[in-house]
Amino acid sequence: MKTGQVTIKDIARHLNISPSTVSRALQDHPDISSETKRLVCELAARLKYQPNIVALGLKQRRTKTIGVIIPEIVHFFFSQVISGIEDVAYKAGYTVMICQSNEKYEREKNNALTLTAHRVEGILVSLSKETCDYEHLTDIQDNGIPLVFFDRIAPGVEADQVITNDREAAYQATCHLLEQGRKRIAHFAGPQNLVIGRERKEGFLQALSGAGSPSGSGLCVEADTFDKAFREVIRLREAGQLPDALFCNNDLTAIGAIKSIRALGLRVPEDIAVVGFSDGVFATISEPVLTSVDQHGFTMGTVATRMLLDRINNAEKELPFITKVIKGDLIIRDSSKLSLSSTQ
Amino acid sequence: MKTGQVTIKDIARHLNISPSTVSRALQDHPDISSETKRLVCELAARLKYQPNIVALGLKQRRTKTIGVIIPEIVHFFFSQVISGIEDVAYKAGYTVMICQSNEKYEREKNNALTLTAHRVEGILVSLSKETCDYEHLTDIQDNGIPLVFFDRIAPGVEADQVITNDREAAYQATCHLLEQGRKRIAHFAGPQNLVIGRERKEGFLQALSGAGSPSGSGLCVEADTFDKAFREVIRLREAGQLPDALFCNNDLTAIGAIKSIRALGLRVPEDIAVVGFSDGVFATISEPVLTSVDQHGFTMGTVATRMLLDRINNAEKELPFITKVIKGDLIIRDSSKLSLSSTQ
DNA sequence: TTGTACGCGTTATCAC
DNA sequence: GTGATAACGCGTACAA
Fold this sequence. Notes:
2 copies of one chain form a homodimer. Chain A has 344 residues and is α/β, with parallel strands linked by helices. In chain A, 44% of the residues lie in helices and 15% in strands. Chain A has 3 domains: 3-51, Orthogonal Bundle (434 Repressor (Amino-terminal Domain)); 63-164 and 296-326, Rossmann fold (3-Layer(aba) Sandwich), CATH 3.40.50; 166-294 and 331-343, 3-Layer(aba) Sandwich (Rossmann fold), CATH 3.40.50. Chain A has helices at residues 8-15, 19-26, 34-46, 53-60, 76-91, 105-117, 135-142, 166-179, 195-210, 226-238, 251-263, 281-285, 297-313; strands at 65-70, 95-100, 122-125, 147-150, 160-164, 185-189, 219-222, 245-248, 273-275, 292-294, 323-326, 329-331. Chains A and B meet through α4, α5, β2, α6 and α12 of A and α4, α5, β2, α6 and α12 of B. Chain A binds a DNA duplex (16 and 16 nucleotides) through α2 and α4.
């Protein structure tokens, strides 16, 4: 199917002038007579002429497009980040090409190739859960295309990064539980090959050891989905290992845990306090409303995009790589807060 | 910033052969000697050569790209649709360019221009809440670019469409409430300039009149967000108009209502049964879990994209426009279902 | 078997 | 003031 769109040539033919004259007239070039300009602009408007950005990109050797590789759009956090990305990109006259890895390494590699084939000027990446090898990404850099990681970064790869202060936020979240008088706090952790998974766990453990908590109290389990959390709570109960508080790697996990806890006839927060991470809509919808760390997804998107555009526009300068930290805010809600009575 | 990517010319220069030979070698053209092919392919691999899709698009006058205009990515339903779109598009070798209208008419007009400027071969659209005029979309069609509407269609515009059986599903949802013995059922409606808003309300009213319900029982209020629903429940209470059941235009609205109802010390579903629409994750996270109509967002995306690709690949044929209806499934959960006792 | 010429839409650089 | 030409990267009919 050929896009039957009007070109500069069409206008030139209609007016019996050359394409270059049309081009200049449209750009309000001083050399062109105002009469010609009028004629050209009128016809262009009537024919709804639009410059062909593809051709422009070819000529100018820059596509004014940036690429994004994310695990899944349907995750609220990522959709927020994308909104932030688009916001900044569009205002700067850039188009955004979004690719989903669906948490698959192979797919992520493909995404990288798709984007470079489209000659995007820069790429924003958040790693899939499977990704352990980063060659497909360093290849991009070798091609001279700037890369900015957000949230799920690649350790060891030299590049700009935007992250949450995961460890610190996890530390605070755990301290909050300790302050509530909780003794046996467990952690439902994310995949440990991701830095965010490790960092959050690390912060959790630090808080416990800082509290001089008895060894063995830091029960960590890898569970990062609603379903896994639901099952894990049941398993812990059967093993007689139910904690009195739970810090989860993300909100959906926390909510799965809450559902499971309640299904067992126990109460949140009275019997088990629960805290999530990466505050999205879920936290306020949950019952009870969920204490969580607000990761400011939209902001993360805007910051990352600005870094990328800076990098693109200063490609010559060999500026050092930057890591920006967006501070997560612990928002305390009912799922972890005892209003009056104490637990026993 | 110039994408310093390797071109066919670079390879040709290195090997002291002409660019066309390189081109043919890369395509495994029979005319080329296997020795030359080997040389070319080896060097191409070493240099990580990738064909410039932009240049190809220009030459072949087809960009292998489709555009999407949606209100907001952060809506779970829309993010599901996008996943479906990407799934089909990528398998067909198409790239997807996503634009958000942010529910603004002006922005939607801009999106349309951006996409045509990029010479996308077809466009998928779901209207913003503000949109009442459709010229920016018919302009696209006049340009010979196929258009497919999904979910939020433009009445009067001749184009392919994919929709939910909104009226019927709303009818069923309301009937379900009637079957539960509810007498005073209210509707929290969406914007009435959108067809889906009107249809869902229509279905609601039909069910009531079919039940020979007393006039005035069909209380309709325009409220389509969490906050509006929350406030509206309070207002109804103050006005002494609280219903015993509530059918909401979407899930988030339903959940806002539930939160408000509970804040008033009333129970769901015992005092007020609640039903939502467009079943997303929210429905299963809500407490109690929410009865809702599953709109099958992912499927809607795949179906719409297939229609669009068909249209693109059969541009010559003047096929009649098609409307596909994806049946919504009413999924009954705790928010509307009385297990044992009856209401009084 | 390989090279040359052309065109996709656009603009910068010459020429006139 | 305007027109012709070349170039961006690629594929292909045609020539050699």
